[in-house]
Specification:
This protein is an alpha/beta fold. It is built from seven helices and nine strands; from the N terminus they run αβαβαββααβββααββ.
Length: 228
């Protein structure tokens, strides 16, 4: 029941953000759109089911196969060891990127095994800045959403937010143990962002805040298309 309730809340939030994306970005049929980190394409398809000029780029091949088979999307398998995105400058009219940048922290296993919180933070910031710079380079407009670090519920583990401040060995151990019977079983490869982080990574964007029960649940950096 708890899992169903949380999934329902998440689905409604994603639907609201989808409507926001279409409205703010002024999506038209001819726009070339990149869904960066789009997985199996189901999220983008739920937002714009009739938009066909879409490229789904991700690191996980089986998901991309589903995106192509189920929705006919063009796909690209990204090399996770390379930080530069394999696209020309302004290759896209719009980039859609939902709940991805917080996971761009560095080599996955290296970061998962890192025990020092400060070292993890410092390394992650460098990689997130590079990712943001690359994303801004390849598109005219963008819509980049990420969970807010200050929301009372950590939205990957579905555990109380203070868990992110625990020493990493304890954090990993708790998530692994609780995950065996909890609604979410994940390991902390992410660094959650603040509004200040997002403003710094995306200086030419407007920040849009999603509110739930008076708390900021997520932050979206929006740069509308210039049309050039």
């Amino acid at each position: 029941m708890i899992k169903s309730f949380l999934r329902s809340i998440s689905a409604k939030a994603r639907a609201r953000r989808g409507e926001q994306f279409l409205t703010l970005m002024g999506v038209e049929p001819h726009h070339r759109i990149l869904d960066l980190g789009g997985g199996n394409g189901s999220h983008f398809h739920s937002i714009a089911p009739n938009h066909k000029n879409v490229l789904i780029a991700d690191h996980w091949g089986p998901d991309l196969e589903q995106a192509k088979a189920n929705y006919g999307y063009e796909t690209m398998l990204l090399d996770g060891s390379k930080e530069a995105l394999p696209f020309e400058d302004r290759a896209f009219d719009i980039v859609f990127c939902s709940s991805v940048i917080e996971h761009v922290t560095g080599p996955k296993q290296t970061m998962l095994d890192m025990d020092d919180n400060k070292a993890f933070e410092a390394t992650a910031i460098v990689h997130q800045q590079r990712f943001a710079d690359e994303l801004r380079r390849i598109t005219d407009g963008y819509f980049v959403q990420t969970p807010n670090v200050d929301f009372p519920l950590e939205q990957h583990s579905m555990l109380p937010q203070p868990i992110i401040y625990l020493p990493r060995p304890l954090q990993r151990s708790l998530m692994k143990t609780i995950g065996k019977f909890w609604v979410s079983n994940v390991q902390p490869d992410w660094r959650l962002l603040t509004a200040k982080d997002m403003a710094g990574f995306f200086p030419d964007a407007e920040l849009v805040f999603e509110k739930v029960a008076g708390f900021t649940k997520s932050i979206t950096a929006v740069r509308k298309r210039s049309g050039r």
